[in-house]
Design a protein that fits this description.
Layout: E1 13-19, H1 23-32, E2 36-42, H2 68-77, H3 81-87, E3 92-95, E4 99-103, E5 106-107, E6 115-118, H4 122-134, E7 139-142, E8 145-152, E9 157-164, E10 174-177, E11 180-183, H5 191-197, E12 204-208, E13 213-220, E14 232-235, E15 244-249, E16 254-261, H6 271-277, H7 285-292, E17 294-295, E18 300-302, E19 307-311, E20 322-324, E21 330-331, H8 339-355, H9 363-385, H10 402-416, H11 420-430, H12 442-450
Parallel strand pairs: 1-2, 1-11, 2-7, 4-14, 11-20
Antiparallel strand pairs: 3-6, 4-5, 8-9, 9-10, 12-19, 13-16, 13-17, 13-18, 14-15, 15-16, 19-21
Helix pairs in contact: 1-4, 1-8, 2-8, 8-9, 10-11
Length: 469
């Protein structure tokens, strides 16, 4: 990578450092290994040998969904890794066929699958990616080590200051020199402050926070004991019905159940009260399912659900040799299940920007490419959250086009519930494999605007045939 102020990392890069060794950091390291002599991943935790939880992934015990767009991107970066996940038991669910789903005031017909999602546990997915990436001799992980600052000045970042975990403030930081530093440290990134300490301009932050909180519990459940062929349940919250719930399978015959509520209406952490909270959903189907299942874990809570976008792409006094990716760049309300997909899409964007021979991959140009990779997910997540009651933040104020687009999208969602033609476009958009503009195509617009309003499906389709699919 070159930059306007002089030579920099790129095809001649000697050493790249990635701060953060979770999914976004590992995939960035995979890409950078093709452009640098060495890549060092700085990770606060010690990696477990098996698919176990670790403290550095605060959402690790919660449900993770790999959308179709993320699956495709992951396979581009690590060919064969999806088959490995499936062989290790990661469920693959066809949507809308496999899941009983309530959204926008109606149950969804369980029509033929349009897209598929993977629902492995986060530790299983990370282990598969970690094994692949760290098997590359060009990539080294420095574990149990935290980044505490950047080295350089307002013109260029030249390294990362690190300290061993447990050394405390008395521990002397050491410098890892680098030609390129990539911040993949997650939603708690301290890079804006570090850049300001170098005399550079920190990024503007766009935020939307609904105050949504959720709790997750692990269950075991005999699917053969149910009077249904559904693989899972999903109740999507909206402005008029702010409670949500989802039950989906992971590997080893387990299910993760997540219940959510907005600020002041958070699900409780005590097991019996958690299950009673499910009665707030618009139908007892999920609570009935939970009553037949065996809980095998405590309830784990999570509250950091704000949408935050750090605008490193905007003009400003920022140094060359520094990039942000993953949640350190753009983080979403986890209820929409976009984070892992965007991490993989961001790595593909990084790969493509560095491989572009038509234009030199300057720091600013690559950073803009990384933000573009997250834009559709942001538009979906932030666009939905700014309509929720009590939403606050710098980007929560409605834009001029929000009202007409919201009216149109409400009609889209009502038709998606029963119309295979609209569903065939809508679901790939949500899965990040088709652009949002596909929903405005003439064929879709005619169905949305000219056809009579569909009848509401007011009972959950427990069997696919009962849904008319």
């Amino acid at each position: 990578m070159s930059d306007e102020s002089g030579s920099g990392p790129g095809s001649g890069t000697r050493h790249a450092v990635v701060i953060g060794g979770s999914l976004a950091g590992l995939l960035a390291a995979r890409v950078l290994a093709d452009h640098a002599e060495r890549v060092t991943v700085v990770e606060r935790d010690r990696y477990p040998e098996e698919a176990d939880q670790r403290a550095g992934v605060p959402q690790g015990r919660h449900l993770h969904v790999l959308l179709e767009g993320g699956r495709q991107a992951l396979e581009l970066l690590l060919p064969g890794v999806v088959d490995e996940l499936l062989a290790e038991g990661a469920p693959r669910l066809g949507m809308p066929e496999a899941v009983v789903q309530w959204q926008a005031g109606s149950w969804q017909r369980r029509m033929d699958a349009v897209v598929h999602i993977l629902t492995p546990s986060r530790p299983l997915l990370e282990r598969a990616v970690r094994r692949r990436v760290l098997a590359d001799p060009r990539v080294t992980a420095v574990q149990a080590t935290e980044a505490v600052g950047l080295s350089g000045d307002a013109r260029r970042v030249r390294g990362v200051l690190v300290r061993e975990r447990g050394a405390g403030r008395a521990g002397e930081p050491r410098l890892i020199p680098a030609d390129l530093v990539v911040d993949a440290s997650g939603r708690g990134s301290r890079a804006p402050r570090w850049l300001a300490e170098l005399g550079a301009q920190p990024p503007r932050e766009d935020t939307i926070d609904t105050g949504l909180a959720y709790g997750t519990r692990v269950y075991r459940h005999d699917r053969h004991a149910d009077d249904t062929d559904a693989a899972g349940y999903f109740v999507v919250p909206d402005p008029g019905r702010p409670y949500g719930g989802v039950a989906l399978p992971v590997e080893d015959g387990r299910f993760l159940v997540t219940l959510s509520g907005l600020r002041g209406q958070e699900p409780p952490a005590e097991g019996e009260a958690f299950e009673e909270f499910a009665a707030r959903l618009p139908h007892p189907v999920l609570r009935d399912w939970m009553a037949k299942a065996e809980p095998v874990s405590p309830v784990y809570g999570f509250r950091a659900t704000a949408n935050v976008r750090r605008r490193y792409d905007l003009p400003g006094r920022r140094p060359a040799g520094f990039l942000a990716t993953g949640d350190a760049l753009c983080t979403f309300n986890p209820v929409y299940g976009q984070g892992m997909a965007v991490a993989a899409l961001g790595a593909v964007a990084l790969r493509d920007a560095l491989a572009d021979r038509r234009r030199p991959p300057t720091t600013a140009r690559v950073q803009r490419a990384l933000l573009r990779a997250s834009r559709q997910a942001w538009d979906i997540s932030a666009g939905a959250d700014k309509k929720m009651p009590g939403a606050v933040g710098s980007a929560a104020r409605p834009a001029p086009l929000d009202r007409p687009l919201g009216w149109y999208m409400a009609r889209v969602q009502r038709r998606v519930a029963v119309d295979p033609e609209v569903s065939a476009v809508f679901r790939p958009v949500l899965s990040l494999t088709r652009p949002l503009s596909a929903l405005l195509a003439p064929r879709v617009a005619r169905a949305v605007l000219l056809r009579p309003e569909p009848a509401v499906l007011d009972a959950p389709p427990l069997w696919r045939d009962a849904a008319g699919g």
